[in-house]
Structure formats: structure tokens, C-alpha cells
Prior knowledge:
The chain is mostly helical. The chain contains one helix and no strands. It starts with a helix and ends with a helix.
Amino acid sequence: MEEFMTSTLQTTFSIAVAAYLLIRMEKRLDELAIAINNLEKGVAKYFGKV
């Protein structure tokens, strides 16, 4: 029974850490997408493709 509890706790902790990191990464990816779009607009404007 103790082995089952330990295994369950380890699995739950791993899932919680993975979910936390994915949520934080999602915010960063959204910011990266905005920065790439701004860069694309800037390059197009610089080269006169707007």
C-alpha cells in the first residue's frame, strides 16, 4: 500500500509540475508570436512592401 501511495504522489507531482511549466510557456509563446509579427511588419515597412 505504501508503494502505491508513493507512486501516486510522484505521478501527481510530475503532472502538476508539467502543467505549471506548460502554462508559463504558453504565455511566453504568445509574447514571442507578437514579437515575430511586429518584426515582420517592421521588415516589410523597411523594405517598402506595405
